Amino acid sequence: MGTAVGTRDQGRGSRAEAITDFDAWVSARGPDLLRLAYVLTGNRADAEDAVQDALSRALPRWDRICRADDVDAYVRRMVVNANVSGWRRFRRRETPTTVPVDGVARSGLPSEDRDALWQACRALPPDQRTAVVLRFYEDLDYPEIAALTGVREGSVRSRVSRGIATMRTALGDDDD
């Protein structure tokens, strides 16, 4: 995911070129951003809001963002940050009963197991849920999660560990 679709390497282009590059990048990466946001937020409306917030902040800065070492990671962090801002604004969240975003159910688990796993994940505090989702859904390593969330690696490890322990208890799996 390191190189961005539709980015320019030749310095500043016109505003129209930046918008065209941005549109191409969003067309290629938008569904992945929406899936990430959905797993973080638990409902499609909040996921769409988080992605829209992140992208609306990215567009005016696109000429700078598209020159970043890892454009995808940069914008993913913007989505995570938009989600964190959402937690601060709205402490009460709905608990989803289904997983409507295509691809989220890619685990291969039977639907009842997947639903139970999803409910256990949704019950986690937001900081633990974010760490668990980034670790196991996005398959990021601890240093990447720390960089993405702006939290020390030790805190990320602790959040993942506590989140998994809480989920195991909720799912009735106390085996280690």
Automatic annotation (TrEMBL):
Coiled coil: none annotated. Residues 27-92 form the RNA polymerase sigma-70 region domain. Keywords: DNA-binding, Sigma factor, Transcription, Transcription regulation. GO terms for biological process: DNA-templated transcription initiation. Gene3D superfamilies: 1.10.1740.10, Winged helix-like DNA-binding domain superfamily/Winged helix DNA-binding domain. It holds the Pfam family Sigma70_r4_2. SUPFAM superfamilies: Sigma2 domain of RNA polymerase sigma factors, Sigma3 and sigma4 domains of RNA polymerase sigma factors. Residues 115-166 form the RNA polymerase sigma factor 70 region 4 type domain. GO terms for molecular function: DNA binding; sigma factor activity. The keyword Transcription regulation applies. PANTHER family: ECF RNA POLYMERASE SIGMA FACTOR SIGM, RNA POLYMERASE ECF-TYPE SIGMA FACTO. Belongs to the sigma-70 factor family. ECF subfamily. This is E family RNA polymerase sigma-70 factor. It comes from Nocardioides currus.
